[in-house]
Amino acid sequence: MNSIKSKRLIGLFLFIYFKKAFNTVDQKLLLLKLRKYGFSDIALGLKENYFIDRKQFIKIDNEKSDFISCNLGFLSDFTVKPYADDTTLIQVGNDINELIEAFNKSIKKLLVWCHYNRIDINWSKTEIMIVSNKKKACFPTSISIDKNDIEV
After folding, report:
1. For tag attachment on the chain, is the N or C end more exposed, with fewer CB atoms within 10 Å?
2. Domain limits at 92?
3. What number is the average pLDDT over the span 62-75?
4. Which domain of life is it from (predicted)?
5. 8 and 41, same structural domain?
6. 79: which residues sit within 8 A by CB, 6+ positions away?
7. Whole-model pTM over 0.90
């Protein structure tokens, strides 16, 4: 932030929120990624026992449903759940139009990543912030990203 102000640049921040991020995590894909990142077989075995083929049921009053397997998402008490369903993209530069163009390129890459990881962006909660101390700068009141108008 200080370098944006001191160098009279423009900072464009996109605060991205994902839709039901923890309800849609593909557990097998997560385990493959953890293996790729070098987790040991023992650690992966523990995670696999925790995630794969969990059984769940619904109880209303004294009535219980049958058990079913649940291979998507995390348990509701998973400790990182409240903290990891959002991210921020940041672009810094001199020209707002160039920043928006660069943002759209970054968003295209993010959308490919989202598709591969089976996660969607919650555009209604996603926000944009522009930071600058440029005098007489004219910034848009909304920016269109992937056919979604996001208020600035």
Report:
1. N
2. 2-20+82-151
3. 75
4. Eukaryota
5. no
6. none
7. no
